[in-house]
Amino acid sequence: MRMRKNKPLNPTNVPVDRDKRDVWIQILTYLILSVLVFWFLQKFCRYDYTYDEQFRMFRYSWNYAEPLLFSAGGISTYIADYLTQFYYWPACGALINTLFFLGTALGVFFILRKLIPDYLTSFFAVLCGLVIVVLETDLNYQTENTLSILLILLALNCILYAPNKAISSVVFMVSTVVVGYITGHFMYVFILGLVAFLFYVFGMEKFTRKFRSKIPPQNFVLRQVISVILCICALWLGLNFFTERHHNQSTRLKCLETLRWRKDWDGILALPYMKLSPTTLYAAYQNLALANKGVLSEQFDKYPQLGVEGLWSDNHGLQYELLLFSDIYFVQGNVAASQMAAFNGFYYSGKTVLPTALLRLVETNLINGSYQVAEKYISLLEETLLYKKPASEYRKFLNHPELIEQDPVLGPLKKLTQGLDGLSSDMFTDLKKIVQANPDFKAAKDYLDCYTKLSHE
Q: CB atoms < 10 A from the CB of 4, how many?
């Protein structure tokens, strides 16, 4: 009776199985870290995203889409504008940027696992993901750059993980054209794709795989523990840097501007640093909030006041100051000055958007009777998702001054402008003229009384 010989085990099965488990454990780790990143971004960075939303205005219009879709790099800008509009809603900004973190981390991980020891890939992948998230909180950084990085990482992974050289070469050529056109970075895509393709073709992967197999510990569990510890260290370093970066004047200003755009006057007054670290700028925001609530004169003494500059701060012509001044002028009844400040803030926005500034231009042009100009701004805003409804509500006032006079906000201001011969560039002088023309206009009277009181002090 012949004995059946047992087939020898394929020694390559074990490392292959372990390699698959390595990958899935890393992906699970990144998913868990993404939850922590989302919580952190929502807690500390939500105003960064709501602030950024104002500097892009996605329009559902072919006139807006056509020049972007048919220009190199325009598609990434189009997608970036589309995503940024959702920053308006709570948690959407944190969610989108968490996906940026996850996509970057995974893209870098799958590239590095062919180049360096397994347990080091997670550390660098997490750091790269956090770098993208940090950059996204900088207003000067463009979201299309993040989209370009994600597409380039996807193309490099497709080149490196192609099943054979022929497919890898096709992917390299196609990605150079497609990704290069979408992002506008043809040269970067070509150079990085060429490096990845040559790495694949000349068998350097075999060398690095042999190199990697000697570095990691042979113990599977120990290797995973080291990898997780390094991931946590990378996350801890990144979030600590984030925390230090967000305790500054810029972050507080983004919070104040967001609350001002949304007319959350109670939210402005409830901010702790308004009383703990008072400045003339903070005082200008708080007094604007009190004036809009109609209690500036009554509650003026309950809040820190830093002289007359705290009524309207120092105008250095900066964009946020222009938009703040537009609101201050508007609540005071100085429609012409409010319109000029809003237009200048709109003009200096870089991308000439700022939907809330456009709404202010609609209001001031309706009050002044410039209906064609107001209609132009209304039409632009009606092409957006979030500002279509408030803009459409102003359309009923076009060529109907009698309806404007009946409106509780626009009516008193229109009546006020009709009773003024003209205003100067001096805010104090203008306030006196406004109060003399209409003594019942409370906000202007309150500002004038507070100015007189502070100037005597």
A: 5
What distances in angstroms separate CA 351 from CA 61, 84, 116, 308, 339, one per listed residue?
A: 17, 14, 42, 34, 19
Report the half-sphere exposure of 273 (CA within 13 A, side-chain side).
Answer: 14
What pLDDT digit, counting tens, does each position of 292-333 carry? 999 998 888 888 888 888 887 665 566 778 888 899 999 998
What does the block give as tokens for 222? 């120990």
Residues 390-416 pLDDT 10s? 999 999 999 999 999 999 999 989 988
CA-derived radius of gyration, the chain:
29
Helix, strand, coil: what percent of the chain each, to 5?
75, 0, 25
In angstroms, the CA 71 to CA 182 distance is: 8
b/e sequence 378-412, b meaning 16+ C-beta within 10 Å: bebbbbbebbeeebeebeebeeeeeebeebeebbb
Q: Which structure tokens are listed for 127? A: 């750091």
HEC profile of 228-286: HHHHHHHHHHHHHHHHHHCCCHHHHHHHHHHHHHCCCHHHHHHCCHHHHCCCHHHHHHH
